[in-house]
User: Fold this.
Amino acid sequence: MEDILRILGDGLSIASLAVIFSTSLSAQKRIKPGASVPLGFSRQGEPVMRKAKAVALWALPALSVVILFLPTASGLAFELMGDEAIMMFGMRGIMSAALALRHIVHMQKTIELMDEEGQLQS
Assistant:
């Protein structure tokens, strides 16, 4: 059972990363080269910090890879048994969904802001 949960957890992570990476790739194609892209937004919806396009679009995908595959890379996912394996699977599922949803919302706000600023390619 533990092996199945570990494999399913890896599968959820891979599916989430596919969504995250495809969203960043789509945004990268739409935003003009040299544009300053927000890394995040305040609660009021204002951009908090701006960085170069590549950094802003690929920071969360890179961090997501580390977060989602840390249990497998560290060997922790291979050591857990029974209830612990079930909890790890649940945690990986929640983290996968949360990271993907956060990235989709962030890219949507980023594209809207870049459109308002005239930084999108036609």
Observations:
- Residues 39 and 56 are 5 Å apart (CA to CA).
- The first helix runs from residue 2 to 30.
